[in-house]
Predict the 3D structure of the following.
Amino acid sequence: MSKPRIEFELDMKDLLAAFDRGGDRGIRAAADVIVAQARGKAPQRTGQLVNSIQAQPPEGSLTGGDLTLAIGAGAPYATFVEFGTGIHGPKQQRIYPTTKKALSWKGADGNRITVRSTQGMKAQPYLRPAVEENVDMIGNIIADSIDNELDKVGK
């Protein structure tokens, strides 16, 4: 008496395509979560920074090993808010004018402020914490999406 035998065919192209579809869908879903988190963490005065936070469409492929996603903020001052300026920023030194004798800007109350130098502003990170606090969740979303795509191939 022979042992029962189960046979099936699996097309590797379909399997690899399912990995890529799942990776793409998963990373897009994870990006939505990160963007929402970053928008919630970003300081809001005018709304320009919050509204400028977005994800670019993913590039590359999971099976190619080059699947990437870019999330950023397009507001001109976004980097300064994320990393700080002056002694609180990457250069860790006071800010001095380069072409004038003093720095001048309008304060929040509308009055003009003029100084010879400034310490800068402290960082108010919003993008990095949104990613760092969700690393496990990002991996789970991508893995679940890949599993869903692989289930479709097996049916």
